[in-house]
Amino acid sequence: MNSLAMRLLHFCAFALTILPCKGNAALLTEDTTGSSTTMAVGGCIQIALRGNATTGFAWELAPGAEDILALEGEPEFTADSSGIGAGGVFTFTFRAVAPGEATLTLVYRRPWEKEMAPLKNYQLKVSVTPK
To answer: Which tens digit of pLDDT belongs to each residue from 54-88?
Structure first.
């Protein structure tokens, strides 16, 4: 392969790692807790979990998977309706940044009640392979 083609190939591989995850990420929900997934470096997943921000509860990322997964931006909350006290969905987007294995854990709690056990947990075993 000539030098120009090699540079173009490297550029395309690099571009795939910096593209936004939205729209090209696998979507997982609460029913996948306790399961496992495999993805390549640069791949993306979205995790959508039901919750109610008006109660003070929110889903938070727990430590443990930061060596292989990076949270893309802030979690998004989408309310089911405009009604007072409406529940909705918290969506987290992650990008695989390095090969390895880890358990991704999200906890549903009130941020000021760190000493209390979470109301709910979400766990996903993630295996990231090289490209």
So the answer is: 999 999 999 999 999 999 999 999 999 998 889 99
Integer-rounded Cα Rg, in Å, for the chain is 17
Residue with tokens 């496992």: 36
Q: In what order do the strands lie in the sheet with 120-129?
A: 35-40, 120-129, 100-109, 58-61
Q: How confident is the model at residue 11 (pLDDT cuts 50, 70, 90)?
A: very low
Q: At 17, give phi and psi (nearest 5°).
A: -80, -15
Residues 115, 103: Cα–Cα separation, whole Å: 22
Domain 21-129: top CATH class: mainly beta
Residue ranges per structural domain of the chain: 21-129
